[in-house]
Amino acid sequence: MASHLRLFEVFSDENASGVVFKNRSLKRLIINIIDQNGHSTITELSRELNTSVPKVTSLVNELIEDGLLKDEGKFDSTGGRRASIYGLVSEACYFIGVDVKRYYVNVGLLNFKKQLVDLHEKIPYKLENTPESLQQLMIIIRKFISEQKIKQEKILSVGINLSGRINHTNGYSYSYFHFHEEPLATVIEKEIGIPVVLENDSRAMAYGEYCGAEIQNRSNVLFVNMDYGIGLGVLIDGKLYYGKSGFSGEFGHIPFFENEVLCHCGKKGCLETEASGMALIRKFRERIEQGSSSSAMRKKKSVGEITLLDIIQAAQNEDILSIEILADIGEKLGKGIAMLINVFNPELLILGGTLSETGDYLRLPIRSAFNKYSLSLINSDTQLLLSKLGERAGVMGACLIARNKVLYRY
User: Fold this and answer.
1) Fewest 10 Å CB contacts: which of 102, 202, 357, 403?
2) How far is residue 246's CA from residue 181's CA, in Å, rounded to a whole number?
3) Pairing relationship of beta strands 155-162 and 94-100 according to DSSP bridges
4) What is the dihedral of CA 354, 357, 359, 363, to 10 degrees?
């Protein structure tokens, strides 16, 4: 237990002042440098911190005693004594990521070296703005924690992704579970006994893809989350862009169409009303009711039972109706994406979310409209890719954002 207490002290400034505060700050900086570089020597740390070698040596030894760092052996250098290199201890502490979807939840456990060591995917769940739905979510989180073969004290933070308006800084959710005066993050934290970080699902997916798919060599990236709705994660100079109030990325609610379709935000004509998973379901049902046929209906008693996953699976099995509607949605979404390209001029645009599972059936019409409607001088510098991480992007992002909150205070 003493080692756990020391671990928490390293990442906390409570009851710290003077020399104690300075030492804790230096320890965190040492961890940050090693985290970013992979490993470091005492000399390298001393140079980066502009602190004496004896002082850095003393702090590194304390971090080894705390179980956060380890000596990884000698480093071969040209001339002089071989220096020891130091790295993070994988099992020192852990972070949980919870990615909440409309009909299921993905939960993962990340170790100190940013490795996903456990992942539970597609746990049945129905996201509704009710106290019962919130309680069910907390049951899922508590169950996942209880099943881990580690002490709960080693789990330093839990990141939770939700769709809609999330204020990452204060932990408030304005789209789901806003039943209390307290921030939702605080409410859940009291229930599970671990600090909680809330994040918008599209931003978390963007960050997870950016860090986990090895694309950090690109600094300006857009991630379009194509699910029941349409979201956007923006990375500028490798950092998530939040906007003044923390609500950036509401791409799906641009008033793009002159229609009478009411969006769930309460307005009409949003991009989501014609180019999203919900639009795909609506258009599919309309076509079936008009007499079209689809392999997706073989196991369904009525068109009202059709889900987004049914249509995606049908498209993957070369169902003509599903592919036709995806092409229509892709063309409209591609026109919206062309606008993003003209505004942001990104190096990379990633298509992710549930609809990305349709592959080229959606990507190709998006690509065509992307080329047609964006400026050629701009789009020629933008690469368009499908998500590499798929379902894992959200969990990875939630874990890493929770980790950053502890290690880097953001």
Assistant:
1) 102
2) 19
3) parallel
4) 0
The residue assigned the tokens 């408030």 is 172
**Which residue is it, tokens 């939960």?**
107
- State the residue for tokens 């169950």: 143
H/E run at residue 377: helix 376-379
Whole-number Cα distances in Å, 17 to 13, 14, 21, 215, 341: 8, 9, 5, 40, 49
Is 80 exceeded by the pLDDT of residue 197?
yes
Q: How far apart are CA 242 and CA 235, in angstroms?
A: 9
DSSP E strands in 285-387: the ranges are 348-352, 383-386
pLDDT-derived band at 213 (thresholds 50, 70, 90) equals confident
| C-beta of residue 208 within 8 angstroms of C-beta of residue 400 | yes
Q: How far apart are CA 410 and CA 43, in angstroms?
A: 28
Amino acid identity of residue 136, one-letter, is Q
Structural domains of the chain in order of their starting residue, each with its CATH number = 2-90 (1.10.10.10), 93-206+394-407 (3.30.420.40), 216-387 (3.30.420.40)
- Residues 99-134 as b/e (b if ≥16 CB within 10 A, e otherwise) read bbbbebbbbbbbbbebebebeeeeeebebeeeeeeb
Has residue 5 got a pLDDT over 90?
no
Quote the tokens at residue 210: 């950016």
Give every strand in the sheet of 230-236, ordered side by side. Answer: 239-240, 230-236, 221-226, 348-352, 383-386
Q: Give the β-pairing of 383-386 and 348-352.
A: parallel
* Residue 251 DSSP label: G
Cα dist from 44 to 34, 62, 119, 316, whole Å: 10, 18, 36, 52
State how far the alpha carbon of 307 is from the alpha carbons of 27, 102, 314, 331, in Å. Answer: 51, 11, 11, 22
What is the spatial distance between Cα 51 and Cα 79, in angstroms, rounded to a whole number? 23
